Amino acid sequence: MSARLSFEGLVGGYGDVSVVRGISGAVDAGEVLAVIGRNGVGKSTLMKLLFGQLPCREGSVRFEGRPVKRLEASQRRGLGMSYCPQERPVFDDLSVRDNLTLMRPDRGLAAFAPLFARFPILAQRLGQHAGTLSGGEKKILSFVRGLAEAQPLLLLDEPSEGVQWENVVHMAELIGAAKAAGTSLVVVEQNLAFAELIADRYLVIEQGQVALDGRRAEVERSQLLRYLHV
Amino acid sequence: MRAASAAVLALLLLPFAVGDFWAYQLGLLYLYAIAALGIGLCWGRTGFLPLGQGTFFGLAAYLSGLALIELDGSAWLIVLLPLAACASGLLAFLIGVLVFRRRGESGPYFSMITLALSLLAYQVANNWESVTGGFNGLKGIPGLPGLDSYTAAYEVAAVALAVSAFGVAWLYRAPLGVLWAALAHNERRVVLFGFDGNRLKAVAFGVSGLLAGIGGALYAPQQGLVTPQLCGFGLSADLVIWAAVGGRFRLLGPVLGAVLIGALTSGLRDRFQFWEIGIAIVFIAVVLLFPQGLIGIFTPLERRLGRRPAPAAGIAAPARRDPGGAAKLLVEGVHVRVGEVTILDGLSLALERPGIYCVIGPNGAGKTSTFNMLSGELAAQAGRVSFDGRPLARLATHRIVRLGIGRKFQIPSVFPALSIADNVAIALWSARATRLDLLRPRLRRWTSPVFEALVARYPFLADAGRTAAELSHGERQILELSMALLGEPRLLLLDEPCAGLSPQETAQVIAVIRWASERRGATVVVIEHDMSLVRELADHVFVLHNGSLLAEGTVSEIQGNVAVKAIYVGAEK
Amino acid sequence: MEPVLVAQALNALYGIASLAILALGLAVVLGLLGVLNLAHGELVMIGAYCAYVVQAQGWPYLYAVPLALVVCGVLGYVVERWLVRPLYQRPFDTLVVTWGLSLLLRKCAEAMFGLGYKSLTEPIGGTVEVLGATYPRYRLMLIVVSVLVLGALVLWYGRSRTGTRIKAMAGNPELARALGIPVRRYASATFVVGTCLAGLAGVMIAPLAPVQPFMGLDHILMSFFVLVVGGLGSVGGLLTGSAVIGGSNSIVSALSDSTGGYFCVLLLAIVFLWLRPRGIHARS
Fold first, then answer.
1. 3-class SS at C80?
2. Which of A88, A98, A107 comes nearest C175 by C-beta?
3. Mean pLDDT (10-residue bins), chain B, 573 residues
C-alpha cells in the first residue's frame, strides 16, 4: 500500500541557493506528519516544494502513487492537495465570508456550522474585511478554509502562529476528526506542544536536511527539544 | 584611444567623401544623435525613461534662435549659445529634483510627467506668438557667424557630437557613471552605501537635458527655423526609438540609431506609407526580444578585438573621518506600524560597547524590520533612536549611512552587471568620495588597508575581469560582506550573513566578522537563526518577540531563560 | 433654482463623468493587474474612429458600440497575451512596450485615416430642459450612460463570484493560485475589459471632440493624473480624482488659457506624487 504522499531526496530553494538539501518523508491516509525545526531551516520551503509553488531541483514527489513533480500548484490542488501558507494566509481585501466561500459552489455557510461552533469569532466577523483580523485570527480563518475544502491531503504551514492556546486545542480536535475521516495532513510547526497533540510521525529538519524522523512512539520529547531549543 | 581618434578624423573628413548636401543632412542627424545620447544615459545606463526630451531640445533651439536673431554677428553669441544649452540642462535637473523625491519606484510617474511636459512645451511654443512666432515658428534665424557653407555647418555638428560623445564616455568611466549603472540595478543598495540616489538621478536627467540642449542650440542656426514641433511629442518619440533600436546600453548605440534610422526615415517616410508603422513594430520587437539593439551585432567582434584592461596600480583612498570610540546606539520605545499591522511594539535596546551582538527571535518578531528602522527605511510613529548621541529620526537613509552605519542583506545584493572591482569601488567611495570626486575616473583605482586585508583572504575580490553575476552564491555573500566592511562602518548590521553557505565558507565568514569586531573596533549586530553560530559569535544576545525585546544577555543566560524557551518550543498558556 | 447654477452644475457633472469614464479602463488595468497601459489613449482613439466609420457609412450610431467593443476587445486580448503577459514581473518594460504600442496604433490610424481632424455630429442633437436650464441632450446622455456603466461595473465586481475572485487575485496572486483561481485567464479577461471600456469611452466622446490620431495623448495623461490624485482602490477615488483634475483644469483655463490649465494639472500631479503616492483614497 503506497503512502498518500511521499517525497524523496527533495532539493530546492531560491535563486541559486538550495535551502532544502535532500529531504525525504511520507504520510499515509489518516495520519499527521509534523515537520519540526527552528525557523530558517527550510520548513516553509519544503512545503512550497510539496505543493508546487517552487520547482524541485532534484528528488521526487508522489501523491497517491502518481509523480506530481512536474505539476504546478493549481494542478496539484485539482488532484486533491490543499495548502494553507505561512505568510499572507488570507485575502485581506475580501470579507471573512468571501474568504471562506471563494472557491465553493455557493455562498452557503451551512457546512461551516461545526467549525463556527469552535471558532465563534469567525461567525461574528463574517462581513468584515479579513485584513482587520489579528494575525492569529487570520490563521484560524485560513485553517477553517483549508479544512472545509475536505481534500485528501492538507498542507498546513505554522497554523498555530499567533493563535491563543484554547483555539490551538480546538484546531487539534478538528485535525483529529479529519484524521479519523481519512484525511492526511502535513503540518509545519514550531510549537512543540501543539505538534505533540496531533502528530503521528515526526520529521525534524536542521539546516535543510533531515535530522531525525520516526513515528510518535519511537521519538522522545528530549530529542525533539534539542532541535528546537535555543 | 587610437580607434577613437581615427573615428573622429573620419567623421570630420566625411563631407569630402559624400558631398555637401549629404553632409548637411548628416549634420542635422548628428544634432539629434547628441540628444539621443542623453536618452541612452537615462534609460540604458540609469534605468529611467524620459519621454519628453523634445522639451529641452526645443527650449534651447528657441533660446538660441532668439539670441541669434537679436544679436546677429555679435561676439556675445559665443556665450549665449552654450547658455541656451545650459538652460535646458538646468531645467532638466530641477525637474529631476522635483520628481525624484520619494524612496523607491518612481519610474512610471517620471515618464508620464516628462510626457506631459513635452505636450505642455508644445502648447506654450504654439500659443506664445509674440515670443515664439506661434505655429509657424521662429523664422529667418541667421547661421553661426562666419560659418556659411554646408560643410562648415556639418563640421560644427560633427565636432559637437564628438565632444558630447567623449564627455559622456568620460562620465561613464567616472564614479558617477558607475553609480548610475548601479542605480539601474538596485537603487536601495546604492542608497545604503551613503549615496543620494534621487540626486544622482536628477543629475543624470540634467546631463541628458544638457545634451538635448546642445543639439537644440545648434539646430537653430543650422536649419534657420524653429517650430513648436521640436518641443512636442514627435521628436521626443523618435529619440526614444532611435536610442532603443540603435542600442541603448552602449555609448554609441543611440548615435547609430539616430543616424541610421533617422536617415532611412527621412528618405523613406514619404515613399513607403508603412515605414513608420514598421519602425514602431521594430521598436516593440527590440524592447521585447533584442534589447541590445543594432550595435549588439558588433559586440562579439569587439570582444575579439578588445583587450582586458591591464590592472592599474592602486591609489590610496583617503581615510574616513570618524569620531573615535565605540559606537553607541540607543533605541527607546520605538513603535512602527504599517497599515493595520504593528511591526515594532515599544522596542528598546542599547549598545554601548564594541563587540558582536546577535539578534534572534521567531518569524515575524521584527528583526529585519529593526534593521530597516535603524537605516531609516521604516518610519517610526513613536520612540527615539540615537546614534552617538545624534537622533536619527527623519534623517534620510543615505545620511544615516554616512554617519557610520553599514548594512548587509540576507540575500546578497551586489550589483550583478558590474565588475567585481566596480562593486568594491562603490563600497570604497561610500562616505569618502566628495561630490567632485565622483567625476574623477581615477577613483576607480582606490584601495585601502581594509581592502588589502580582505584581498589577502579572498583573492577573487581583486578580479576586475569578471562581473558579480558570475560569482557563486557563497562568493557573492562574501563580496557583499566585504563591501559592507570596506565602508569601515562603526556599526555593522548583518542579516543572516551565512545563509546558504557551506560549512567552510561559514567558518571563513565568522573569522571575518571577528576580525572586523576585534581589529577594527566595529560594533557588529547579526541577525541569525542558526544557534550554533550564535553560540560561537555572540558576546551578547537580544531576543525579539512580537516587535519588542523579550530578553537579553549572554548566550547561557538566554538559554536558561524560561520565557525564551517558551516562545521557541511553544507554551501551554 | 437658478438656471445658470443648474447649467454650471450639469457642466461640472459632465466634466467629472467624461473624465471618469475615460479613466475607467486605465484604472481597471492598473488597479487590478498593476499594468500601466500607455496605449490606453490610443484605444480611446480607436473607439472614436469606430464611431466615425459608423457615421460615415450612414449606420445608426449605436452600431459603433459593438464595433468598438470587438476591435478593442480583440486588440486587448492579443496585447495581453503576447506583449504584457511575458512582462508581468517587469513593470518598467511593460510601460515601454505599451508606449511602443501606442506609437504603432497612432501610425496605423494615421495611415488609415490621415492626419486631419474628423468631425462627428451628435447622434442625439438638440437641447432639453432640466430644472429650468437648457442643456445639450447628448451631454446629458453621456452623463447618464457613464453613471450606468460605472454603477454596473461596481455592482458586478462587488457582488458576483467572478468579481470577488478577481479581487482576490489582484490582492494576493500567490494564494489565489494556491486556491485554484485561473489567474492567467482572469488577467486576460480583466485586460480585455479595460481595453473595451476605453473603446466605449471613445465612442461616447467622439462627437464632442475632434477625432484625430493624436487625440489619445491627452486622454492617457489626464487619466493617469486622475488616478494619481484619486488613487486606485475605489470608485470614490476615481470620481474625486476626476473632480479635482477636471475642476482645476476648467477653472484655471477659464482664468488664463488652456495652457495654464494644463500647467496647473501637471503641478497638481507632481504635488500629489510627493504627498500621497497612493492618492486620496488609499487601497482599503
1. helix
2. A88
3. 79 79 87 96 94 95 92 82 95 93 75 91 89 86 79 89 95 94 92 93 96 95 91 93 94 94 85 84 92 84 59 73 78 88 90 91 86 91 91 89 90 89 91 83 85 89 86 88 90 89 87 86 89 89 91 90 78 47
Q: How far is C103 from chain A (nearest CA, A)?
A: 36
**Sign, Cα dihedral of B126, B129, B132, B134:** positive
Angle between helices B107-127 and B77-99 (to 10 degrees): 140
Pick from A91, A98, A107: which is nearest to C175 by CB? Answer: A91
Q: What is the pLDDT of residues A40-72, one digit of tens each?
A: 788 999 999 999 999 999 999 999 989 999 888
Crossing angle between the packed helical segments C258-275 and C215-230, to the nearest 10 degrees: 40
Cell of B455: 584581498
Residues of chain C neighbouring A93 (CB-CB closer than 8 A): 167-168, 170-171, 283-284
User: CA nearest B236 in C: which residue?
Assistant: C103
Which residues in chain B have Cβ-Cβ distances shorter than 8 Å to A229? 531, 559, 565, 568-569
Query: In angstroms, rounded to a whole number, what is the distance separating the alpha carbons of residues B26 and B29?
Result: 5
C-alpha cell at B431: 562616505
Cell of A230: 535555543
Sheet holding A184-189, edge to edge: A81-84, A153-157, A184-189, A32-36, A201-206, A209-215
Q: Which of A17, A207, A230 has its CB closest to that of B564?
A: A230
pLDDT of residue C280: 38
Interface contacts A/B by beta carbons within 8 Å: 67
Residue C282: pLDDT band with limits 50, 70, 90: very low
Count CB atoms within 10 A of the CB of residue A60: 14
Half-sphere exposure at residue C79, Cβ-oriented, CA atoms within 13 angstroms:
34
Pair B332, B384: CB distance under 8 Å: yes
% pLDDT > 90, chain C: 58
Cross-chain Cβ contact C111/B47 below 8 Å: no
pLDDT of residue B308: 54
B385: how many CB neighbours lie within 10 A of its CB? Answer: 21
Sheet holding B548-553, edge to edge: B405-408, B491-495, B523-527, B355-360, B540-545, B548-553
Interface A–C counts its CB contacts (< 8 A) at: 57
CA distance C165 to chain A (A): 7
The predicted complex's ipTM stands at: 0.90
* Residue B103, all three cell numbers: 524612496
